[in-house]
Amino acid sequence: MCGIAGLALKPGARIAPETLAALARALAHRGPDGAGTHVSERAALVHTRLAIVDLATGDQPLFGAGAALIGNGEIYNNRELRAALPLVPFRTGSDCEPPLHLARAEADFVPLLRGMYALAIDDSERGVVTLARDPFGIKPLYRCAADQGTAFASEPQALLAAGLATRRIDTARLVELLQLQFTAGTATVFTGIERVPPGALLTLRDGAEAALLDHPPIEPGEAPRDEDAALVALDAVLAQSVELHQRSDVPYGMFLSGGIDSAAILALMARLNETPVLAFTAGFDRATVADERDDAEATARAVGARHERIEITETMTWRHLPAIVAAMDDPAADYAIIPTWFLARHARGSVKVVLSGEGGDEMFAGYGRYRAAARPWPFARPMRARGAFDGLDLLRDRGEGWRAGLLRARQAASGSGLARAQREDVATWLPDDLLLKLDRCLMAHGVEGRTPFLDREVARFAFALPDRLRARRGLGKYLLRKWLEANLPAARPFARKQGFDVPVAAWIAGQGQRLGELVARAPVIAEVADPARVRDLFARAADRRAGVACWRLLFLALWHHRHGLGGAVDGDVFEILGERA
């Protein structure tokens, strides 16, 4: 995991050293182990390194075959790619060196890579700059038009810090953020800054787009239709993925919840490792939400894992929330950023890599909303049919425009009703919320996050399963539960789960009037909502629906302070919001 940035230059364009230095400074948290640059007549490349593989010779940019490459992420089939290229004179042990040579030999090299990545390649022989992003969108990449050509970076804030983009904010996207919790599609909240789409292979010539190839995250595959045979095949595909995701030259651990997905990862890590797995679990100081630490500890104990528990308190949250929100420069108002950020801060004292269960629900149909959406007409219930602020009479824009990104993904989805619902989430919720959250919260502390469920072979298998092996008896992830029942019964895969929650509503309710006044006075809130109604909403934050809406307004106020106004975050919530009193 690293940070990348740079420009594909127009003919004759020059880039100031100060601009490259500003990009490097802005991305230093993603790569505290080193930095490098490369400048040619076509491109200027900046790399900040988090050293995970090939600690001795893996500094970037990498050079070879008339090209230079910078990358963020991990190519898990590095060993296999090297074996398939016996005539290539590799200079390093870096997992990113095979893509450098593949890009010169193959017009479309993305299907050959198995991993999470954002790559930039300056190809002198072809006279082009190539950007590539993994098909699930695990690793971020953004671009914008600049005076010198096309600029790109791992985070929008780097483009802003270097003066390559402006802080103009699209208010319609803020409304989408409030209603949906994230923004779907390529457009960001910053006018002019776009996400490079997941799976994109983008060719830039003379500083402008010349070609764009798309690679879907889910490709056609095969899976047994018989349950027993499917369980054997599931074991093989998951074990292979976890083995690949454990390839590292530095210590690694995992995030363990009380749920199915992380328990499955733990079971396989315990099988594949000779030493005890190190697992981290977060809990809260409020009895109003389920505490997963005891369940996680019992699961960890069953496989002999080392288990570390952390408690997140209200005081901790108010103190660090401005910094947590600041990490989300591309905003996702998912309250799970709170435990993810604290877990990463704790884990960095022991490891540089953590495996997590993100993607298990999307691959194996875990959410109840999938089953509801797959019901036959007229009983089907479309996903996210209602925004968080519908009926609250609070937003200035009460239109339906915030649904546009979801509807585009919904119309493009294919397969059974269950598969279409899953594909909609894979195209939106997964890259634009869950993976964005994981990337920013971990990279804020220089920790790499890996997601074994989001592997091309796992996806091929999972989406080839018949619906009856995905969802049965009113439960999702049926086959995964059956596998876990045999491999780690202590995880109680068929027990009724309360679900993961964060007590933000209870915390906000305890500060309702004080916090409501501060949030209502934030300039961005007046742009999108009626401040008087915001105060009223915070007064009834103990109600769950009102509490969720209050959390998103609080998130927006803090986010705008940092990324809209460029304010500092060296204070607690009340100090930061109080600066504008």
TrEMBL record:
<keyword id="KW-0547">Nucleotide-binding</keyword>
<dbReference type="GO" id="GO:0005524">
    <property type="term" value="F:ATP binding"/>
</dbReference>
<keyword id="KW-0067">ATP-binding</keyword>
<dbReference type="InterPro" id="IPR006426">
    <property type="entry name" value="Asn_synth_AEB"/>
</dbReference>
<dbReference type="InterPro" id="IPR029055">
    <property type="entry name" value="Ntn_hydrolases_N"/>
</dbReference>
<dbReference type="Pfam" id="PF13537">
    <property type="entry name" value="GATase_7"/>
</dbReference>
<dbReference type="InterPro" id="IPR017932">
    <property type="entry name" value="GATase_2_dom"/>
</dbReference>
<dbReference type="InterPro" id="IPR033738">
    <property type="entry name" value="AsnB_N"/>
</dbReference>
<dbReference type="GO" id="GO:0004066">
    <property type="term" value="F:asparagine synthase (glutamine-hydrolyzing) activity"/>
</dbReference>
<dbReference type="GO" id="GO:0005829">
    <property type="term" value="C:cytosol"/>
</dbReference>
<dbReference type="InterPro" id="IPR014729">
    <property type="entry name" value="Rossmann-like_a/b/a_fold"/>
</dbReference>
<dbReference type="InterPro" id="IPR051786">
    <property type="entry name" value="ASN_synthetase/amidase"/>
</dbReference>
<comment type="pathway">
    <text>Amino-acid biosynthesis; L-asparagine biosynthesis; L-asparagine from L-aspartate (L-Gln route): step 1/1.</text>
</comment>
<dbReference type="GO" id="GO:0006529">
    <property type="term" value="P:asparagine biosynthetic process"/>
</dbReference>
<keyword id="KW-0436">Ligase</keyword>
<dbReference type="InterPro" id="IPR001962">
    <property type="entry name" value="Asn_synthase"/>
</dbReference>
<keyword id="KW-0315">Glutamine amidotransferase</keyword>
<comment type="similarity">
    <text>Belongs to the asparagine synthetase family.</text>
</comment>
<dbReference type="Pfam" id="PF00733">
    <property type="entry name" value="Asn_synthase"/>
</dbReference>
<protein>
    <recommendedName>
        <fullName>asparagine synthase (glutamine-hydrolyzing)</fullName>
        <ecNumber>6.3.5.4</ecNumber>
    </recommendedName>
</protein>
